[in-house]
Amino acid sequence: MKDVRLSVKKAYSKVAKNKISCCSSDCGCGESSSLLISESDLGLSCGNPVAFSKIKNGMTIVDLGSGAGKDVFIAAQLAGKNGKVIGVDMTEEMIKLAKKNARKFKEKTRLNNVEFKKGFIEDIPVKDNVADLVISNCVINLSPDKKKVFEEIYRILKPRGEMVVSDIVLDKKLPKKLKNDKDLYSACLSGALLKKDYLSAIKKAGFKNVKILVSKKYSFSGAGCDHITSGKGNRLKFFASSVTVYAQKGY
Ligand SMILES: C[S@@+](CC[C@H](N)C(=O)[O-])C[C@H]1O[C@@H](n2cnc3c(N)ncnc32)[C@H](O)[C@@H]1O
Question: What is the pTM of this model?
Answer without folding.
Answer: 0.93
